[in-house]
Design brief:
about 15% helix, three-stranded antiparallel β-sheet, two-stranded antiparallel sheet, single chain, globular, alpha+beta
Length: about 150
C-alpha cells in the first residue's frame, strides 16, 4: 500500500486520540499487518503503528510513478459516485482533526452540539471539510486521478 496524504501520522493505537509515534510521507510504501475498523496497523523498518485506512492506496500517485505505465485499469473504487467521494474526503478531514469539535453538527463528549465552537465555525486555524459544498470539483478530480 502507499500513503495518499502529504504527511500521515502513525499512531500508537487505532484512533486519533492515540499518540503520534511517527510520520510517513506521500507515496511511501507501507506494509499493512492488521485492521481495526477503518484503522490499519502498518509496520516499517523504523516504526510500527496505526493509520486511518482511507489514506492508503494500492498505487503511488502519478507524480512519483513517471517511469511507469499510466493507470488504465478500472477498480471498484474508481466507480465511486461524486457524492461518495465527497463523503470520504469529509470523513478523512474530520478523522485528522485533533479536537472533538471539527464541525458544527458534531457533539462534545458531554453530548452538547458543537455549533459555533467548532473548528469549522472559527476563522483561522484548522478548517476541516464538513459539508459536501466544501469539497470542490477539483478535489474530487484529484481523488479520481489517484485511483
Amino acid at each position: 500500500m502507499y500513503v495518499d496524504a502529504s504527511r500521515l501520522n502513525v499512531r500508537s493505537g487505532p484512533g486519533k486520540t492515540f499518540k503520534s509515534v511517527w510520520t510517513v510521507k506521500r507515496d511511501e510504501a507501507v506494509r499493512v499487518v492488521s485492521q481495526s475498523g477503518q484503522w490499519k496497523e502498518i509496520k516499517g523498518d523504523r516504526y510500527s503503528g496505526w493509520v486511518f485506512g482511507t489514506y492508503l492506496t494500492a498505487k503511488p500517485s502519478r507524480s512519483s510513478s513517471r517511469n511507469q505505465e499510466p493507470r488504465v485499469a478500472v477498480k471498484a473504487s474508481a466507480r465511486m459516485t461524486t457524492a461518495a467521494i465527497k463523503k470520504l474526503l469529509i470523513q478523512r478531514s474530520k478523522a485528522y482533526y485533533s479536537g472533538s469539535c471539527p464541525c458544527p453538527y458534531n457533539v462534545t463528549r458531554s453530548g452538547r452540539r458543537c455549533g459555533g465552537n467548532s473548528a469549522y465555525s472559527r476563522p483561522g486555524g484548522a478548517s476541516p471539510l464538513c459539508y459536501e459544498s466544501d469539497v470542490s470539483a477539483a478535489m474530487v478530480a484529484e481523488f479520481r486521478a489517484r485511483l
